[in-house]
Fold this sequence. Notes:
The chain is of the alpha/beta class. The chain has one domain: Alpha-Beta Barrel (TIM Barrel), CATH 3.20.20. The protein has 13 helices and twelve strands. The strands form three sheets. Strands 3-4-5-8-9-10-11-12 form an eight-stranded parallel beta barrel, surrounded by seven helices. α1 packs parallel to α2. It is globular and about 60 Å long. The site of flavin mononucleotide has 23 residues, from β4 and α10.
Amino acid sequence: MxxxxxxxxxxxxxxxxxxxxxxxxTNTQSHDDGTLGDDELRWLVRRARGGWGLISTCxxxxxxxxxxxxxxxxxxxxxxDAGLRQLASALVAEKTVPIVQLYHGxxxxxxxxxxxxxxxxxxxxxxxxxxxxxxxxxxxxxxxxQFASAAERAQRAGFVGAEVHGAHGYLLCQFLSxxxxxxxxxxxxxxxxxxxxxxxxxxxxSRCGTGFLLGVRLSPEDFGYAAGMDLDESVALARWFAExxxxxxxxxxxxxxxxxxxxxxxxxxxxFRAALDPAVRLLVAGxxxxxxxxxxxxxxxxxxxxxGRAAILEPDWPTRARDANWSPEAGPLSRDELIERDxxxxxxxxxRRFKTxxxxx
Length: 361
Ligand SMILES: Cc1cc2nc3c(=O)[nH]c(=O)nc-3n(C[C@H](O)[C@H](O)[C@H](O)COP(=O)(O)O)c2cc1C
């Protein structure tokens, strides 16, 4: 089993100084037009100083219609470039590996945020501005191009890589799902459902070159919004995405100890590890709080651990984890304690839905 503090090389040639990644975390701290907010910069740079081997931005929208959250970072306009450059250079200066997460909300992009009716693989049920309509083939092709352009924009700004958000029931996951019954070659069979993500990966690889760090995030099973995902299909998808040019696959598990729904006697992490070429790195997220959790995830076959909620509570998690006597903050913390950790008042309000993070006052 790899040491948590040993470096990790990816097949594109990039190396992370250790195996602790900051998970992509939506933080609502940028401006309405998608330009970087000072609070989002401060929040990420504070974490970079804490020794994270790889830092992902939040899910960043690749077009105005792709937006899913208030205060979300954008990756589609020249107006975004100055902030992206500032963020990338500040992260590089702290010796971490900065990547963006490429996002389209699909059916989950509210009309109130985008002013457009949401789109998805298939039409939603019911009527109204928030009910998704099925994308036309022309829109699918344009969307693939938007993902690739967003990755190129990030690369020009100084980011060394990108992760394609294929998880959590957003647009790409809506296409991967068994609920995608399209009959035009972009749905139906697993090949058809996988096609948009495969094309996105190939397009990003072709536009950003072989040295760009490229990954894909997956929800391996039907859970929460990731409806219609099947474990065995997800393993097959991960192999295809690696063939198409992904350097890593990032499993979003929510709880690494929760047994698989379909194969409760098998370990999900080990299944993916066995299916993928060892050169394709496996990142795993899901309730990793302590060093023991992180080591357990590495022992099951992950190459890198990805930490979300514990990173909000402990900006210096990777640095402090080197001390064998340290135990991480379990939370919840008060508003002021979070603000001390460079979580802005606005982000604290967003986080109130997570009772283990913000203490009710
Ligand atoms: C506040 C918050 C924001 C999140 N935003 C994103 C996001 O933008 N993109 C994404 O893929 N996952 C997002 N997630 C999921 C996390 O990346 C992570 O997979 C999940 O929180 C489980 O890891 P943890 O137990 O270490 O928090 C978010 C989670 C939280 C708590």
